Amino acid sequence: MTVKPAPILLLAACLLALCPAASSQTDLSPARPAIPSHVFNVKDFGAIADGRTSNTGAFRRAVAGAASAGGGTLVVPAGDFFSGPIELCSNLNFHLDAGARILFSQNFDDYRIQGNKYRPLVGAKDCHDLMVSGAGVFDGQGDPWWVIERRVKSEARAKGLPDAEIGRPRMMVFEHCQRVLLEGVTLANSPMYHFVPFRCEDVTVDGITISAPSNSPNTDGIDPSVSRRVLITHCKIDTGDDCIAVKAGTHGSGPVEDVLVTDCAFLHGHGCSIGSDTDSGVRNMTVQRCTFDGTDIGVRLKSRRGRGGLVENITYTDLTMRNVGQAIVISSYYYGLPKPGVHDEAKPVAPDTPIWSHILIRNIVADGGTRDAGLIMGLPEMPARGIVLENVTVGARTGLRIGYADGVSLKNVSIKPDSGPALLVEDTVANLTH
Question: Which CATH superfamily is domain 1-30+242-434 in?
């Protein structure tokens, strides 16, 4: 069955006029770091590239030497450098030559702060003008962490709990930093998320590769968190969880705003996501000219009661999907999605209620084994509003489910399910136009 285009009513025209195309980012240029001309080599500070000798002290001395000189480029030459955690500084280009590989320790206590709280494998805090570049590899060797986490998650789910977390280090966390650039490098096999810019401004991620097994738990690729002016471009991401997840989970410090994801390739993983933490809000974000192949979900906006906030002026455009699980998901039920035909009880609207507003999804093609077209689902107390799908073609086993929504506009949308209706519209939907 195909949903054929029909004349757009006045409401749809108003929604299109208010859609995020005018206010989302399509050509974002964050400020780039300025790095002094000094050059340092980590071997000059005692580093040994045998893949066994700990270089934690050598990296610490090298970063301190660069900092005392006012900054510069710290070169890691070809070879395998074994290390514990590395802390970076301002005015630094941490450069891995081709053939360079940093193998991180699998000793949990090397990163432990206390209990299940851990420092990252590579960290920076309150820094400015910071760059990580080159053709080398950061290998988190995360398998021991994953083995335990899989077991803990499995035990939690057997008890009916939605999830569980043992606490694990992220690979690279930059906190409250300005003018950050990641370029060219490969991040692989992190114990948990690979790159998290947290409370940062002017972040560029250009041409990096992120890789972890498809069954590695919570190994998100890039998670911009409560940050502003973030450009992610020409990256290849293949992970066990969200390829990208924009997060806004810190009250009073948001919103995340002015984000552009462009010309990226997503393989295994849970898609290019917003949430599930949206407490402090997300606005002015564009995802454009990206491909999805084997990804669990393509477009993914997720939150839930107690974890939500205002997400507005979001555009996903010019995307190609093959072999994805779900093409499009906008959901206020990160856990506990109501079954079709079952009504949820409205709750009082609170500051942490998820709000989806002015979301434009256009020029999307999903075929070649897509499992289902997806889901648009707000809440009874806060329907999803101002959702526009335009020039969308999906071939899938099942159609698009819509519930708890007010003002969804479908323009030139073709959904061709293997069986059943193209649109599964519940009686909680108002002002659907197509």
Answer: Single-stranded right-handed beta-helix, Pectin lyase-like (2.160.20.10)
